[in-house]
Amino acid sequence: MLLGRNSKCWCGSGEKYKKCHMEFDEKLKEYAKAGYQVPTRDMIKNAEQIEKIKESAKINTAVLDEVAKHIKPGMTTEEINTIVHNFTVEHGAIPAPLGYGGFPKKCLYINKRPNMSWYTIRRRCS
To answer: How many CA atoms lie within 13 Å of 24's alpha carbon, on the beta-carbon side?
Structure first.
Protein backbone atom coordinates (compact mmCIF):
# COMPACT_ATOMS: atom_id res chain seq x y z
CA MET A 1 0.00 0.00 0.00
CA LEU A 2 1.46 3.32 -1.08
CA LEU A 3 0.96 6.07 1.48
CA GLY A 4 0.48 9.70 0.57
CA ARG A 5 2.09 12.44 2.65
CA ASN A 6 -1.27 13.33 4.20
CA SER A 7 -2.46 9.76 4.77
CA LYS A 8 -2.65 8.45 8.33
CA CYS A 9 0.63 6.81 9.25
CA TRP A 10 0.95 3.05 8.98
CA CYS A 11 2.10 2.79 12.62
CA GLY A 12 -1.34 3.51 14.03
CA SER A 13 -0.38 6.76 15.75
CA GLY A 14 -3.20 8.62 14.02
CA GLU A 15 -0.74 11.25 12.79
CA LYS A 16 -0.19 12.15 9.17
CA TYR A 17 2.46 10.04 7.51
CA LYS A 18 4.62 13.09 6.69
CA LYS A 19 4.78 14.06 10.38
CA CYS A 20 5.30 10.56 11.69
CA HIS A 21 7.30 7.97 9.73
CA MET A 22 7.84 9.39 6.24
CA GLU A 23 11.38 10.62 6.92
CA PHE A 24 12.24 7.37 8.67
CA ASP A 25 10.89 5.29 5.77
CA GLU A 26 12.90 7.37 3.29
CA LYS A 27 16.08 6.61 5.25
CA LEU A 28 15.23 2.91 5.21
CA LYS A 29 14.75 3.03 1.45
CA GLU A 30 18.19 4.65 1.07
CA TYR A 31 19.79 1.94 3.19
CA ALA A 32 18.03 -0.78 1.17
CA LYS A 33 19.23 0.77 -2.10
CA ALA A 34 22.76 0.81 -0.70
CA GLY A 35 22.51 -2.94 -0.10
CA TYR A 36 21.84 -2.96 3.63
CA GLN A 37 19.29 -5.30 5.13
CA VAL A 38 16.53 -3.22 6.70
CA PRO A 39 13.85 -4.27 9.19
CA THR A 40 10.28 -4.81 8.12
CA ARG A 41 7.68 -2.48 9.59
CA ASP A 42 6.45 -5.13 12.01
CA MET A 43 9.92 -5.11 13.61
CA ILE A 44 9.72 -1.38 14.32
CA LYS A 45 8.40 -0.70 17.82
CA ASN A 46 6.32 2.24 19.00
CA ALA A 47 6.95 4.19 22.22
CA GLU A 48 4.55 2.04 24.28
CA GLN A 49 6.19 -1.19 23.09
CA ILE A 50 9.65 0.20 23.80
CA GLU A 51 8.62 1.08 27.37
CA LYS A 52 7.34 -2.48 27.88
CA ILE A 53 10.62 -3.86 26.56
CA LYS A 54 12.53 -1.65 29.03
CA GLU A 55 10.30 -2.85 31.88
CA SER A 56 10.92 -6.44 30.86
CA ALA A 57 14.68 -5.84 30.75
CA LYS A 58 14.59 -4.46 34.31
CA ILE A 59 12.84 -7.61 35.52
CA ASN A 60 15.30 -9.82 33.62
CA THR A 61 18.24 -8.02 35.22
CA ALA A 62 16.65 -8.35 38.65
CA VAL A 63 16.13 -12.10 38.05
CA LEU A 64 19.83 -12.52 37.35
CA ASP A 65 20.69 -10.55 40.49
CA GLU A 66 18.31 -12.76 42.51
CA VAL A 67 19.87 -15.95 41.17
CA ALA A 68 23.36 -14.57 41.91
CA LYS A 69 22.35 -14.08 45.58
CA HIS A 70 21.27 -17.69 45.98
CA ILE A 71 23.29 -19.83 43.59
CA LYS A 72 25.87 -22.17 45.04
CA PRO A 73 27.78 -25.27 43.97
CA GLY A 74 25.66 -28.39 44.02
CA MET A 75 22.33 -26.70 43.33
CA THR A 76 20.07 -28.55 40.97
CA THR A 77 18.68 -26.93 37.86
CA GLU A 78 15.23 -27.43 39.41
CA GLU A 79 16.26 -25.28 42.40
CA ILE A 80 17.53 -22.56 40.06
CA ASN A 81 14.38 -22.86 37.98
CA THR A 82 12.26 -22.35 41.12
CA ILE A 83 14.16 -19.17 42.06
CA VAL A 84 13.74 -17.78 38.54
CA HIS A 85 10.08 -18.77 38.33
CA ASN A 86 9.04 -17.43 41.74
CA PHE A 87 10.87 -14.12 41.36
CA THR A 88 9.51 -13.58 37.87
CA VAL A 89 5.90 -14.24 38.89
CA GLU A 90 6.25 -12.11 42.05
CA HIS A 91 7.22 -9.20 39.81
CA GLY A 92 4.20 -9.53 37.53
CA ALA A 93 5.93 -11.17 34.59
CA ILE A 94 5.48 -14.48 32.78
CA PRO A 95 8.45 -16.84 33.00
CA ALA A 96 9.60 -17.46 29.45
CA PRO A 97 9.78 -19.87 27.77
CA LEU A 98 7.14 -21.29 30.11
CA GLY A 99 4.80 -23.21 27.85
CA TYR A 100 6.88 -22.39 24.74
CA GLY A 101 6.44 -25.08 22.13
CA GLY A 102 4.39 -27.13 24.59
CA PHE A 103 7.20 -27.46 27.15
CA PRO A 104 5.78 -27.56 30.69
CA LYS A 105 8.54 -25.40 32.19
CA LYS A 106 11.70 -23.50 31.49
CA CYS A 107 14.78 -25.53 30.67
CA LEU A 108 18.17 -24.81 32.11
CA TYR A 109 21.19 -26.17 30.35
CA ILE A 110 24.56 -26.02 32.05
CA ASN A 111 27.38 -25.97 29.55
CA LYS A 112 30.27 -28.24 30.45
CA ARG A 113 32.79 -25.47 29.87
CA PRO A 114 33.88 -23.73 33.09
CA ASN A 115 31.96 -20.63 34.20
CA MET A 116 29.42 -20.80 31.39
CA SER A 117 25.73 -21.52 31.66
CA TRP A 118 22.78 -20.52 29.54
CA TYR A 119 19.05 -20.74 29.68
CA THR A 120 18.07 -22.43 26.51
CA ILE A 121 15.17 -24.22 24.99
CA ARG A 122 16.04 -27.84 24.56
CA ARG A 123 14.25 -30.29 22.31
CA ARG A 124 13.49 -32.46 25.31
CA CYS A 125 12.85 -31.06 28.78
CA SER A 126 12.02 -33.00 31.88
So the answer is: 14
